[in-house]
Amino acid sequence: MEILISVITLIIALSTALVPFLWKRYISRPEITIQILLINFISSNLGLSSKNELNEEGFIDGNNAINMFELTWKFKIRITNNSELTAFYPELQFKPDGPIFKLIDSLDKYYPLRSAETIELFFEYRKFEEKAGKERTVPSKVLPEELNHFGLLLSYQNSYKSKFYTLFNNSDKSNVFLRYKPSQYIIN
User: Fold this and answer.
1) What are phi and psi of 2, to 5 degrees?
2) pLDDT by residue (tens digit) across 19-38?
3) Considering just the CA atoms, what is the radius of gyration of the chain in Å?
4) Sorting pLDDT into bands at 50, 70 and 90, what band is 188?
5) Which domains does the chain have, with CATH numbers?
């Protein structure tokens, strides 16, 4: 009976020390959230399109001419650490099969994201269209369809080098906290 009590006491003592260690190492994680904010929208006329036809006098009718327009949406990515734990080695990845963005700022992988800290990165999306001036896309806060479903993946580590992920989905503006990298973000 004394041996059984000694074994139980030993198990309780070990689990009391082991559970907090395992919790910190594998379960305790920084909670990093991502927000996408539209800054502005620009539509620039790049000139006449080669699709225009000449009229009888050999000129292009300016009222009905097809122009080339460059549409640019400028965004801000706001990454915030909403926990008391520091996130190490943060890396940002756009969804590989989504639209192609131009990242103006870059996330420094070697700069840890401390508790309650926010980092803002700027990026833009460009699209070209050939339309008559009357039919051109009017600047607005409405995003084109291809921008409604893009995603971002932020990977980071805790102080014990355990990896964690935050998956941002632009269609519902949600952040999902993951332990494993989603398969659509694994590039072979």
Assistant:
1) -65, -35
2) 777 777 777 789 999 999 99
3) 26
4) low
5) 28-185 (2.60.40)
